Amino acid sequence: MEEGLISVDRWSEPSQAYFLSHLHTDHTKGLSRRWKRGPLFCSSITAKLLPTRFPGFNLSLLRVLEIGTPHSVSLVSPKSGLEITVQVVAIDANHCPGAVMYLFHGEFGSMLYTGDFRWETTSDRTQIAKAMLLNALGDDKLGMLYLDNTYCNPWFSFPPREVVAQQVVDLIASHPDHDIVIGINTLGKEDLLLHISRALKTKIWVWPERLQTMHILSYGDIFTTNTSITRVRAVPRESLTIDNLKALNTVRPTIGIMPSGLPWVRPANEKDASHGASHSNRHKRKMTIGGSSVDSSKVGESPSSPLMLNHHVYSVPYSDHSCFTEIREFIEFIRPSYIKGIVSSSTWYINPFHYFGNLCGAHKQMEESSKNIRSDLAENVEIIQTESSVGHDKFDEVKISTKVVRQAARKSRVSVVRRERKGVRITHMDDSSRTDFDV
Prior knowledge:
Largest sheet: 6 strands, mixed
Strand order of the largest sheet: 5-6-7-8-9-20
Helix content: 25-40%
CATH superfamily of the largest domain: Ribonuclease Z/Hydroxyacylglutathione hydrolase-like
CATH architecture of the largest domain: 4-Layer Sandwich
Shape: globular
Radius of gyration: 26 Å
């Protein structure tokens, strides 16, 4: 797709159409009530919620997309000046209210932007989304997948949310004399709160702004701002701190519950996170809440059980993002040619192509090209052993004649060599000059 046509969850670059996947703040950075760059496409729920986040927003700019229904967007090519048509389908992302994935079709092929998503194969919503994606793709092959890679690491494994929701109910029921404080964001975890309310037949306290959101979502009768009629309170996540819980316990016995896939309990060795750290030693790790470091102890035998982080706080693996196995199942289903992660600043970040490149069409193409290059260069390569500048491991330094490298470049295969020989310096030499390519 040409630059300057479409932006998704990016608000600082000039485009002709803008798409919002959902209203979490990390996806709205740069968006404001004064927005006027162009039309903003989103789901109907996001359109209802957006004025509460951005009062005074020009609602005439909103374009509501119905889930599963193809919509055509007319744009003008910045290069040719000709009118082009891009077809887009919004698919339920099963993340927070209003969250959607976007599937784009055009002369560029097909590309899918997942935004933040949860791919629970046992969920009815996921099965509906799966059918919609298959129908929208038709006979097309998906080219690029922009993937929610928040937990694209074997270290992360979550049960389905309905299982964890019942764990939370059991945890609350096992503390009949305690007040319960649950840390949540301004949007999300509604299904967890609904499950608790129905199972325990109780209303749940929320702060006033959150109650407004619940009314928009038609859940107002389940939530209240009256603390005297319920012992279960949902509070802003940042207010659930060790110090606050200690203060609450001087008045009434209180426990806090942190529902999230976030690694509150980090690996003893941070490097473990990059290599699939075992869950068996989670009780030996450290975590931080509200700036306070605490020890954790395991509750139950299953690594998917709640963790008691100290006397007052439990962590439960209730996540609105896909875990590693779910990401793999999704990629096996969608089979894109290429993958690009949309999260790049996480401590746990790993390029999804590292784990799932073998499931992509481009990987097979690179393997074939790599075989051809190795064959073409076999008689022109001299292998010598050198010491790595960053360690004691041996790396190969490959000397390749200038003529052969240039031939390979003309065939657009040099990038394949670079991928195949990570950490290797490819050097080509002739009588007059020397150029080094660090790859």
